[in-house]
Amino acid sequence: MEQPTAQRACIRKSGDVMKPKRTILCVDDNEQSLSIRKVMLETRGYRVITCLTAEEGIEIFKAGGIDLVLSDFVLPGRDGQKLIEEVKNLSPQTPAILFSGKVKFYDRECRADLFLPKGSYAPIELLERIRLLLVRKRGPKRVVITSSLVIDSRQHAAAS
Known about the structure:
It is built from six helices and five strands; from the N terminus they run H-E-H-E-H-E-H-E-E-H-H. By secondary structure, it is α/β, with parallel strands linked by helices.
């Protein structure tokens, strides 16, 4: 009997269950930069959805399933800051990174979790920042209490 496609995608040949991929929405009007970023993120195991405008990015975000937004500051029409503001209005816990090749320092109030000037960071630094933001979104690992740690109150009272 064949497994459904979504379930099959999460099982490796060895039989281990893989964690579902995190989905990153990348918004940039420079197609070459967008393509490079997409390949870099996909080789690290992320699912990447790309678009060229803030309006398109918002529609994709509203459809759901986005774990992090990575947006250029300067976009045609609505800028990246407004895109992130709308994303945060819809989902305050979704991490967002704003970057720019034109703006080197950004001190205005911004709802992005991180601002990065293009060219001032190594790709590995961007990957690490993304990883940390996604870990923070997911929260700390939950502690599993096994039954051997549970003390029966009657036993505890009798021992006292």
